[in-house]
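Help needed: design a sequence for this.
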């Protein structure tokens, strides 16, 4: 089963965890310093909260979005996404066997024409691991990782 992932920047992790626990009626799946995620059954959603300084977060929708994603069952499904992006002429960045969100993951990143980062990923090992190294692509908006070639993406349509 695949599910959409929504990664939000939050200024106060504790109050955000409390709010989303009430909103979705489920406790977080994982909580670590500056990070929490929920595996919501209905609607099928992976909600990720990433704590950032209040001045970086802003208010309302300003700076709320960190990135979007689709969690898939296995690495073969990530590879199918890579094949689809390649066939569509979309620039993408592979990020296999990476330590991200306190788990080992295989993923591919793309951007929409406005630069919104999307990842298609699978968790290969959900055992507790340390946070990713600063400067890694984990939960980093893809605009800092890759530049999309919009010309080839449009020509592929």
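Sure. Designed sequence:
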């Amino acid at each position: 089963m695949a599910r959409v992932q929504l990664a939000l920047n939050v200024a106060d992790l504790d109050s955000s965890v409390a709010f989303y626990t009430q909103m979705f009626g489920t406790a977080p799946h994982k909580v670590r310093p500056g990070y929490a995620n929920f595996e919501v059954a209905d609607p099928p959603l992976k909600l990720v909260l990433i704590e950032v300084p209040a001045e970086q977060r802003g208010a309302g929708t300003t700076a709320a979005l960190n990135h979007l994603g689709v969690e898939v069952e296995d690495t073969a499904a990530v590879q199918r996404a890579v094949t689809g992006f390649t066939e569509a002429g979309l620039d993408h960045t592979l990020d296999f066997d990476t330590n991200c969100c306190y788990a080992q993951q295989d993923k591919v990143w793309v951007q929409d024409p406005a630069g919104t980062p999307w990842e298609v990923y699978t968790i290969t090992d959900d055992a507790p691991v340390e946070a990713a190294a600063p400067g890694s692509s984990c939960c980093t908006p893809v605009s800092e990782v890759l530049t999309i070639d919009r010309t080839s993406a449009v020509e592929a349509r």
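The mean pLDDT is 84.
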